[in-house]
Amino acid sequence: FFQADDGKRDAQESRGLGDVYKRQLFIFSTALASEQQLYVGCSEVSITPNEPVALEGSFTLRISDGIHSPIQASVLAIGTGGSKALKDLSIIVSADLVHIPNVITNKLRQKVSKLLPELDVSKIFICATHTHQAPVVMSDNFILPKEIMSVDEYIDFFVKNVSSAVVKACNNIQPGSYAWGLGHAQVSHNRRDVFFDGTGQVYGGVDAKNYRGPEGPEYQGIPVIYFFDREGKLLASCINVWSPSQEYFGGNKISADFWHPVRKRLKSEWGDDFVVIAWCGAAGDQGPVRRFHTEAENRMMKLRGSDSWVDEFGRRISESVLDTYSLIKNERKSKIIFSHEAESIPLPGWLLSDDEIKGIKGWMNAYKKELDEDPSKAFRLARPISWRKQTLDRQELFKNQTQGFYPSEIHVLRIGDVAVCTNQFELYTEYGLRILGRSDASMTCVVQLAGPAHYLSTAKGIENGGYGSRPESCAVASEGGDVLVDVSVDKVNKLFDPLVRNLPPHGKLVDNKPNGLGWEDLLKEIDIWDYEKDYWNIGKDIIIGSSEGGDHHFCWTKESFKDFQAHLVFKLTGSSPNSGFGIRLNPVSFSDVPGYQIDMGRSYWGSLWEEGGDGMVDQFNPKYVDRFLNHNDWNHYYVEAKGNHIKAWLNGVSTIDVIHENGPIEGRLGFELCNGPKQTKLEVRVLYVRKM
Fold it and tell me: Are 552 and 665 in contact (CB under 8 A)?
């Protein structure tokens, strides 16, 4: 947060600022809403079909001929309040499927609404683990043989089982508690390879001579939320792994992939009724396949005693969850702030040119012709045809809407200190990291595949091309990803808004004039100021300070003030401006003025600095400044100083509230033009003070 070229700051100012931020965030967040008793219920159910099904995850039709590991759906019912009323509950479902088409979500909500009429079914969401060994759940993806379970039959089977599990979770609702923690494990790698010719491809080959490197970032954090019953027994955990579960891929066996050994290991630790809510993080361009040192990786996997990479990833994830639990198990909270918002947001669709549409139609028609000539090729040709038909259908949707929007449902939850935000996509990791970086929550879970699973590529990915970054793969282009990030972050930060807007009545201005009696206008008279005329222009109703850098340049009142209130309306401009409203100044010279500054400038807005003393006394987190600062325009500081207690509000937001025992309690008022290579212009058009 600090500029190395700022002469008035030195390294000591960073001391303890992390604690200051934590203190502020704790105070702010607890002031938002009252914490209430947490209620929790959970259940799980098999979604493994009892007859052969078509398997999703490949462009070639595969028919299941057995079970590698059972697939299941897990349900968490959660809410807060004085009772366990159904209307207050949110329902979170994770399922071992490739994706969640809207027909599944709609049918489940309809079924549950009949079974539990009081429940707000709009607060049900389902997310997929993205195993590539699960039943096909889109009826137009393949041409299926009649002797297997149809897509509609499987969806009805899924809805029946999962709706029963939802009812069970709601019936099991009880007062509980939660805790959270962040673990780590290497379970994925960026799978988009970029080459020197400017192209990109999923698993394109790191051993190629023209391989340039991975296209995007990776993330190996594993956020976990733990839920307990009233006695402190662990009931369930939401585990946010930023990798699709597609290590076991390509055969004809149904499989939950690495989530199966995760469940087995955690159940062996916490009991058979323990429930894993499996969340796939933003991993559209990540996957579990090893990219480098593959021989060494395989050797170490075997030396660790794992029989396969499915088991090894299960070991890594479960050990991370257990390790995190050992650190947070005594930090349970039974009263939390909980909220849940659901909305369908319009994302700008990926609009294609006539030539691009013509090209896609050409490929689709060529495949159709080949299929007409030889229907036995349906197992290979049906999916490439449907892939392109779905793309063309989306283009028709965009044309029928004035602005070409693609509606996409998102859910944003606050669970105590943790944010959860969902999206329907295979979301490239960059977008997830952007959400993490901008989120106000102490920990954020980005949950993808809570809906139809189109890829959502980055601008760089689209430029490089390849599978996952072409129109057939994506419903929206990178502009849609930008909107998704912005909307998700805005909703999260509204739920976690740390800003305190508690400006007292006498801290407000009406027509640039303060309320009440006893205020003195310090811009009425010129001769009450000491200043350098080369740097300050002080006239009636205006102060203008200007500096190209170099030394400090201060101006100050001839009168001293002890306890006071002050209003300041000002504008700060320049290439790298830095200034401050000085209080309790005790000048030595125009460039050496010990005392406090109510700070102005990038990284320092809303902070209290003591020149010639303790340095940074109270640092306001720069992360939040853009939400209320008027850059290059007029802003308002209201300041109160009484004894060692100093408070300040910037544009109505409390940024300083500190008792500084060692600081001065009397001195001049004034302004500073900062030293160093800073071109600064400060304009002040309102300055009132009232002695207390």
Answer: no
**DSSP designation for 317:** H
Q: Which residues contact 479 (CB under 8 A, 6 or more apart)?
A: 348
- First-to-last C-alpha distance (Å) of the chain: 35
Confidence of residue 397 (pLDDT cuts 50, 70, 90): confident
Give the separation between CA 204 and CA 285, rounded to whole angstroms.
12
Across the range 173-202, mean pLDDT stands at 96
Residue 157 — φ and ψ, nearest 5°?
-60, -45
Burial classification of residue 361, based on how many CB atoms lie within 10 Å of its CB (0-12 exposed, 13-18 middle, 19 or more buried): middle
Give the number of other Cβ atoms within 10 Å of residue 359's Cβ. 14
Cα distance between residue 559 and residue 660, in whole Å:
23
Q: Alpha-carbon distance 657 to 638, whole Å?
A: 12
Give the E-state strand segments of 520-618 in sequence order: 520-521, 529-530, 536-539, 542-547, 553-561, 564-573, 578-585, 595-601, 608-611, 615-618
State the burial class of residue 513 (Cβ atoms within 10 Å of its Cβ: 0-12, 13-18, 19+).
exposed
What is the reported pLDDT for 5?
A: 31
SS3 122: helix
Mean pLDDT of the region 561-578: 96
Type of residue numbered 238? C
Rounded Cα distance, 249 and 251, in Å = 6
Q: In what order do the strands lie in the sheet with 200-202?
A: 200-202, 192-195, 211-214
Angle CA(224)–CA(410)–CA(85) in degrees, nearest 5? 70
Task: Quote the CA–CA distance of 179 and 378 in Å, as a whole number.
Answer: 51
- Residue 12, pLDDT > 60, answer no
pLDDT of residue 416: 97
Total residues belonging to the chain: 692
Q: Please, are residues 377 and 496 in contact by the beta-carbon 8 Å criterion?
A: no
- What interhelical angle do 309-328 and 259-270 show, nearest 10? 40
From 566, 572, 414, select the one nearest 497 (Cα to Cα).
414
Question: What's the confidence (pLDDT) of residue 87?
Answer: 85
Q: What are 415-441's pLDDT values in tens digits?
A: 999 999 999 999 999 999 999 999 999
- Inter-residue contact 644 to 661 (CB < 8 Å): yes
Q: Is the pLDDT reported for residue 26 higher than 60?
A: no
